[in-house]
Amino acid sequence: MNSEGELNFEEAFVTIDNENQQYLVRIPLKGKNFELLSGVTIVYDNDYTYESKVETIVYKNNNGQGILITWINDKLAQEESVEIADYEGTSTDELQLAKSNFKCMTNCLSDQGLPTWALGLISVACAAACVGTAGLGCVACIQGLGYYGIFVYCGNSCGLTGK
What we know:
The chain is of the alpha+beta class and 163 residues long. It contains five helices and seven strands; from the N terminus they run βββββββααααα. The chain has one domain (6-157).
């Protein structure tokens, strides 16, 4: 472990990525101030051979920032931060936002335990994968964080997926 977190095996789960023929074993991390997105994802191929490990912690610091740190195979891969105040409070364009499905999506994700500022970190963390792969890498990035099912559920609930 690279962080000071504690593995929460009681909440562990497995996701099957049929497109890439991989199994993603997600073990959440518990730690002081850790958010729901914190965890370890271990990737196995379709023959159950170990491929890689991704450890991600998400937390609030004392300076009003949301922090995301990711290690891939025990090497620091990414450190990102967002100003929490930028994602909380009243929008200057609240009326327009209230009319959009985006408001529904952020409310739904927040209700599932994913605060709005953490979503900002996800967008920063996954931006390169989303842009560099014409959107296809977004799914893999979010799956790697372990909460793809929540995004699908909220997208469906808010009418954003067309299903």
